[in-house]
Design a protein that fits this description.
9% strand, 311 residues, four-stranded antiparallel β-sheet, Alpha-lytic protease prodomain-like, membrane, alpha+beta
Length: 311
């Protein structure tokens, strides 16, 4: 079977690429607006950092698309399909690290009982409370990502792209960040000094939760784990479907299924395993390298996970 991506899937990937370019454009404008409206608010600072981090998934998606279809080489005989998996791991690790740091900052601010202040600014001769500008910036920061996120999710499911799905999920849930930030700003206006740090804590906890969930899925894939669902770390139904069918065709054999980017790779091996003892390994490779050869399997061609309905 050819490794070529079906034209319909390729078309959806090209559309996803265009949406990611639009995401980068809108995020850049949001980052600028949020920076100038940030003031001394911890919640605004955390929301601004989250918006900056949101640039990672679209950039990594576009980079992965450049490399994943490159032909195999002597140094990379299985091709570059897993470059998306590597990019997914990098994005998840960055989210986890930054979420942890921001959560610590928010907790520290609460423990120290920091009292943030929001002053006034003069606009066209009028004194305006800076908090209203912060709220307006937060509202603006929510609208483009939420719209783009809802447009990306169906494409991510169709193409089985984890980076795209993570990006879409973060975008679609961006309203929670905006709402938490607005609540923190309004809370300061009513004299609740703790509202700002509490809002920052909620935003950073959401970043950390997303990062750890994605990190768990990414590590499982890079450790040759079974294919996972997009929405969770549960094993994808294609594993049972593919394993059952191949066991029928190759009686007396076991089936090993692992993820390779948006594809899956299936190996058919002897039911007792494909491990080799020392003597058998030495017959295949040199004595010095024999210890490295632990299994020999019959490898089937990769099947696009997005075409699982075809078996």
């Amino acid at each position: 079977m050819s490794h070529d991506i079906p034209e319909e899937i390729e078309r959806k990937l090209r559309r996803a690429g265009r949406l990611e370019w639009w995401s980068i454009f809108w995020l850049m404008t949001i980052i600028v607006v949020m920076y100038f409206a940030m003031g001394s608010s911890q919640a605004m600072k955390t929301a601004w950092i989250e918006d900056t981090l949101s640039l990672l998934p679209p950039i990594l998606f576009l980079l992965a698309r450049k490399f994943e279809n490159k032909p195999a080489t002597d140094k990379y005989p299985f091709g570059f399909h897993r470059v998306g998996s590597l990019a997914f791991l990098l994005a998840a690790a960055a989210l986890s690290a930054m979420g942890g740091v921001l959560l610590y900052d928010a907790a520290s601010a609460l423990i120290r009982q920091e009292h943030p202040t929001i002053g006034n600014v003069t606009i066209l001769g009028w004194d305006v409370w800076l908090g209203w500008l912060m709220v307006a910036a937060l509202v603006y920061s929510v609208i483009p990502p939420v719209i783009l996120g809802r447009m990306k999710k169906p494409l991510a499911r169709a193409t089985m792209d984890k980076i795209l799905y993570t990006d879409a999920d973060m975008n679609a849930a961006d309203w929670k960040t905006g709402l938490a930030g607005i609540a923190g700003i309004i809370g300061i206006g009513f004299g609740f000094w703790w509202a700002d740090a509490a809002a920052a804590g909620l935003i950073s906890f959401d970043i950390l939760r997303d990062g750890l969930r994605n990190l768990r899925i990414a590590v499982a894939e890079l450790l040759d784990g079974a294919p996972r669902e997009l929405e969770s770390s549960d094993i994808h139904p294609i594993v049972d479907t593919l394993s059952d069918e191949l066991r029928k065709r190759f009686a007396g054999h076991d089936v090993q299924v692992r993820e390779t980017g948006r594809f899956v790779r299936a190996n058919v091996v002897l039911a007792k395993g494909a491990e080799l003892n020392g003597e058998e390994a030495r017959q295949v490779v040199s004595e010095e390298q024999a210890w490295r050869l632990v299994a020999v399997g019959r490898q089937l061609q990769e099947l696009p996970e997005c075409r699982e309905d075809e078996g």
